[in-house]
Amino acid sequence: MKEIRIHGRGGQGSVTAAELLAVAAFADGKFSQAFPAFGVERRGAPVQAFTRISDTPIRLRSQIYEPDYVIVQDPTLIEAVDVAGGLKDDGMIIINSDFDPSKFSLNTKAKVVTVNATKIALDVIGRPIVNTVLLGAFAGATGKIRPESIKKAVKERFPGKVGERNAEAIQQAYNMMKEAKV
Amino acid sequence: MTSKEKLEMEKMVVVEGSYAVAHAVKVCRPNVISAYPITPQTHIVEGLSQFMADGEIPNCEYINVESEFSALSALVGSSAVGARCYSATTSQGLELMHEVLFNVSGMRLPIVMTVVNRAVSAPINIWNDQQDSISQRDTGWIQLYAENLQEAADMIAQAYKIAEDKEVLLPAMVCMDGFILSHVYEPVILLEQELTDKYLPPYEPLYKLDPKKPMTFGALADPNYYTEFRYLQQKAMENALKKIESAANEFYEIFGRYYGGLIDEYQTEDADIILMAMGSIAGTIKDTIDNLRQNGVKVGLLKVRAFRPFPAEAIRKTIKDAKVVVVLDKNISLGLNEGALFTETKSCLYNTKNRVPVVGYMIGHGGRDIRMCTIEKIISEAQEIMKSGIKIESQFTDVREELI
Fold first, then answer.
1. Between chains, do A62 and B369 touch, taking CB under 8 Å as contact?
2. From the list B1, B16, B283, which residue is nearest A61 (CB)?
3. Does residue B40 have a cis peptide bond before it, meaning omega lies within 30 degrees of 0?
4. Which of left, alpha, beta for B170 (phi over 0: left; psi -120 to 50: alpha)?
5. Measured distance CA(A112)–CA(B336) in Å, rounded
6. Which residues of A lie closer than 8 Å to B, measured between beta carbons?
7. What number of other Cβ atoms are within 10 A of residue B378's Cβ?
8. Residue B208: exposed, middle, or buried by beta-carbon count in 10 A (0-12, 13-18, 19+)?
9. Are A49 and A39 in contact (CB under 8 A)?
10. What is the pLDDT of residue B178?
11. Is the ipTM of this complex over 0.85?
12. What is the pLDDT of residue A40?
């Protein structure tokens, strides 16, 4: 079983990203589960969402404490939240940032990866909404999910132009990670 | 993956728990829905409102109301004229219905209601425990508890089947853990309309309000008659015991899915330690059991699906060879320091020869997360009880001493 934790701020679509990841993983033939950190959500406040992906049906209902992967939508969260908390040593943390990973001093032995998802989102989608872009980066960096499945899930959720543009941004982020051989 | 799992996966879609339930309600062809939105139940009624707006529920009226009290009251009248009725609520909303709950059962109206389990105020808390539905234990409603989304959805159809049976005619609550199930996305087979129609025929009331054949529901019953109404409600509950089993069996025949009737068992056959619990915690317990069994710990789970009627006989039978029984409750009877399932499990053993030690843990109050390590700790304490007997009969779990 692989466990993923997504950090973001209220309004950034962290919960949606977790759900889309679950839908995409299921399309890949895996069992999946997505849920929010059940809070009273407020725009701008730090939020978390979780996804589990497994070859067998998922019965576990606790929150995720030792994720294999962490996605950080907003790098300013790193000052406020222990985003790498519990992250497995052989795991990976993907941060939306134009800085080099070495600029982040995180308390983890796991691999740190950065991707300028905000730029991709602004260029391709036209809005600084990075949740789907980061899923593309996740697919490229981890190889744990097919980018086609993510694009399909996003297009089903957001039909029309919005979905198309998101799919393009997902592909760009995926390619970028592949080229960087993360 | 087994071939059955593969086949099931082909039919599954990843949806939110609340949507799976709203969809199940839709295919059960309700005639009247009335509910008042309250977190974490809201997504269910939003889903149903959407279905109504899209014209997807034929012959159905959605009655907007100003409170939960009114929601259930509106269904009293609707059900009395023979409509299949649905509502959903939680926590304070359910508590506000308290008076009407007795009326529904006393008038023998087979209303089905989802209770999205949430803690009760004060202090205000929107997260999960089961204090809300447990507090309605004696209102005369059947209470079923779901472990996962599939069960929460499937139980809607089963609940109508049980409630509307002419030997039962009692309302039923389908309880699902708030957020943990209502807000989770996971693969579910949405109930097929055709199969549901086959499973659940239209509701044919034994008695109904009809201007051509006037009669009264809920009339005065003076001391000469009241006892017999109570007696018959109890008899109906007893009839429900076997109807809950048969509803699960018939469901299996048509849909191919089965999770037990009154109870379900997991690794209990040779178990020295049997845990008992209701709702979504069962999944976390099963994973913990698998881990511990690899180390040779003989532990199993008795999942209680039906809390009312209370499945005393099924419980006695399942735990007869256990060396310790551990009951986990997401509720507390303040002043007794026990959860309801614990108290009732002990009670159902008292006049039997079975003197198995039974201990209780109250857990997960107000949404405190229940981790596998907590379940492991409880099981290791049960191993100690096997060696040296009970030291603490009933206790809170995971109390933060630094806050007290």
1. yes
2. B283
3. yes
4. beta
5. 52
6. 18-19, 22-23, 26, 29, 31-36, 38, 40, 55-63, 65
7. 20
8. middle
9. no
10. 97
11. yes
12. 64
- pLDDT value of position A182: 77
pLDDT bucket at A179, cuts 50 / 70 / 90? very high
Q: Which 8-state DSSP code applies to residue A55?
A: S
Which residue among B187, B369, B372 places its CB closest to the CB of A26? B187
Residues B389, B392, B397, CA angle at the centre, nearest 5°? 125
* Contact flag B283-A19 (C-beta cutoff 8 Å): no
Q: Which chain A residue's Cα is nearest to B374?
A: A62
The bridge status of strand A2-9 relative to strand A46-54 is: antiparallel
Q: What sections of B182-263 are H helices per DSSP?
A: 193-199, 226-255
Q: Output the pLDDT for position B291.
A: 98
Q: Which residues of A touch B150 (CB under 8 A)?
A: none
Find chain B residues with C-beta within 8 A of A32's C-beta: 14, 185-187
**Mutation for B interface: A50, A62, A65, most B CBs within 10 A:** A62
Please list the rounded mean pLDDT of every run of 10 residues in chain B (404 residues): 81 97 98 97 98 98 97 98 98 98 98 98 97 98 98 98 98 98 97 98 96 94 97 98 98 96 98 98 98 98 98 98 98 98 98 97 97 98 97 96 96
Residues contacting B89, CB < 8 A, separation 6+: B35, B36, B38, B41, B68, B71, B97, B113, B114, B115, B116
CA torsion angle for B148, B151, B154, B160 (degrees, to 10)?
-110
Please give the pLDDT value at position A176: 96
